[in-house]
From TrEMBL:
The lineage of its organism: Bacteria, Bacillati, Bacillota, Bacilli, Bacillales. It comes from Paenibacillus glycanilyticus. Residues 181-347 form the Radical SAM core domain. The keyword Oxidoreductase does not apply. It holds the Pfam family Radical_SAM. Its cofactor is [4Fe-4S] cluster. Keywords: 4Fe-4S, Iron, Iron-sulfur, Metal-binding, S-adenosyl-L-methionine. This is Radical SAM protein. The keyword Metal-binding applies.
Length: 417
């Protein structure tokens, strides 16, 4: 497997004499053949700014830094793929931070690009190539003309056309999982927030957070337009908003109105689930699916990343268990990072968390973060680091009734409330 690297102009090369490596946390590691898959459709190769690639010299077995004005290359994977290793690199300027994306080790072998990853779900619905941009524009024109006063559609049109967000695009294509953002505020200060960053963070948020509070009527219009088929999903909690449960009052009211008019489709919420009383009200209003974002089931690690305001990880667990007990199909949006998520103590804690809450699904999501900044933030490892591939095998063995995937699934028909 050959080293992949890029020049300053973005031209990508492979080096036939140097062996590619990966990275787990802050450790450079060798890549195994069974960790590599061909570069998936929809993946993107990117240069890592202010870096030098690290490789293995096949003659000596030494790890070396590539000389010359070159930078390391990483792959950005589409949904449905779980990364197993980070790119191998050394920063030339430790003060520089990577943009907030999830970078995966990439190599050249057998005449093509390969990545250190595992397919963990069917990527079809979340493959950007299956989202026709012309159809999205037509959908935007249709729904913004039909609801000219609805600010949500105007906001979502920017997400769909400007950011090419697939969830908001689905809202205008009226298919699969569509989004209905509701909140401009949040009860957490996530270190890697993609919609709002402090001025002194050093990160640039890749999205702009919504800046208004929608009315119940605006929410109902979007929900009713989307919930027209048995398999449609409408979701509160998008990347362009804060925590949706902070707007529990209008969510509950909108849900009750919608469910008085149609039983079609599923209502989902993507949430941190910290506001337990608000979450109970949303569940009781007829919620079908709940996806809770978490990075760890260990308090110290969770608190360092999420910086929760007036809630704890215990509140998150209570919310999940309440929802599961009420028949909601519960899942976690598990933000994973090689060298951290696969630590012995992290795995044990998450298995216990899943069993106590009755989780039905773990959605593996590659954490979008600058690696050095993240590793400085969290507590150091206390036990063995198993590797991401073995971690996934352990989850499948220890949690046989929990689906391991990458995005929202519909519950089994027999489990429908």
């Amino acid at each position: 497997m050959n080293l992949v690297y890029a020049d300053e102009k973005g031209n990508v090369f492979d080096h036939p004499d140097y062996i590619a490596l990966g990275r787990s946390g802050d450790m450079i590691v060798e890549l195994m053949e069974d960790e590599l898959i061909p570069l998936p459709r929809g993946a993107t190769l990117v240069g890592l700014p202010h870096t030098r690639p690290v490789f293995m010299d096949p003659d000596t077995g030494e790890m070396k830094m590539l000389s010359g004005n070159y930078q390391a290359v990483g792959a950005l994977l589409p949904q449905g793929y779980t990364r197993l290793a980070l790119p191998s690199y050394v920063k030339t300027d430790k003060n520089e931070k990577f943009p907030l994306f999830g970078y995966t080790s990439v190599v050249w072998k057998d005449g093509g690009f390969y990545v250190a990853a595992e397919q963990s779900d069917d990527p079809y619905k979340w493959d950007p190539l299956n989202c026709d941009r012309g159809d999205v524009r037509k959908g935007v024109e249709l729904l913004t003309a039909k609801y000219p006063e609805n600010r949500l559609y105007k906001h979502l049109s920017h997400c769909a056309l400007g950011y090419e967000c697939l969830t908001s695009s689905n809202t205008f294509l009226q298919r699969w999982e569509g989004g209905v953002p509701v909140s401009y505020s949040c009860n957490a200060g996530c270190f890697g927030c993609i919609s709002e960053q402090p001025d002194d963070s050093g990160f640039v948020a890749p999205q702009t957070r919504m800046n208004f509070k929608p009315t119940v009527d605006e929410i109902v219009e979007v929900m009713l337009e989307h919930l027209k088929t048995p398999e449609s999903i409408i979701s509160f909690g998008q990347g362009c908003e804060g925590e949706p449960s902070t707007q529990a009052k209008i969510i509950v009211e909108a849900m009750k109105i919608v469910r008085s008019r149609t039983n079609q489709g599923y209502i989902n919420i993507n949430t941190n689930a910290g506001l337990t009383d608000f979450m109970r009200a949303i569940v009781d209003a007829g919620l079908d699916l709940m996806r809770v974002s978490t990075i760890s089931a260990i308090d110290e690690h969770y608190n360092a990343y999420y910086k929760p305001r007036a809630y704890t990880l215990a509140n998150v667990e209570k919310s999940l268990k309440y929802a599961t007990d009420k028949g909601v199909y519960t899942s976690i949006n598990y933000l994973i990072f090689p060298g951290v998520t696969d630590r012995e103590e992290e795995i044990e804690a998450m298995i216990g968390f899943a069993k106590r809450t009755g989780l039905k699904l773990i959605q593996m999501r590659n954490l979008n973060i600058d690696p050095e900044s993240y590793l400085q933030l969290i507590p150091p490892a206390k036990g063995e680091i198993y590797g991401m591939k073995q971690m996934l095998e352990i989850f499948r063995e220890e949690l046989p009734d929990v689906v391991i995937g990458s995005y929202t699934h519909l519950p089994p028909v027999a489990a429908r409330k």
